[in-house]
Here is the input.
Amino acid sequence: MRLSEVQFGTEQPVDGYGKDFFRIGGVAHAAPLLLVSGQVLPWGGYDDHDALLQLAGQVDVLFIGTGGAIAHIPPALRERLEAAEIGVDIMDSPAACRTYNVLLSEQRRVAVALLPVG
Here is the structure.
């Protein structure tokens, strides 16, 4: 079997997380946050629709990490994302980090919005 080191190019994976932070590229950032195109951006949580809607046409899928446990996102947010034709996948934040990292390593056009794990 041949093992290869995972390469992320200029993108930065999620290295870890704690109660109120996510570590990206070795640097801790306060949650909630949005990762897209190698950038760590502030995200205002479920009420911050505009930050997510700006991803239309830029990403193939947006992962939303709902914190320490999977939960439904508000219906109004889901409706606006669907109307903007943004593919969205909802999961708890740890799973969203792992899935984001895998697709990022495949150089896919992905973004992740993360709520703290609590």
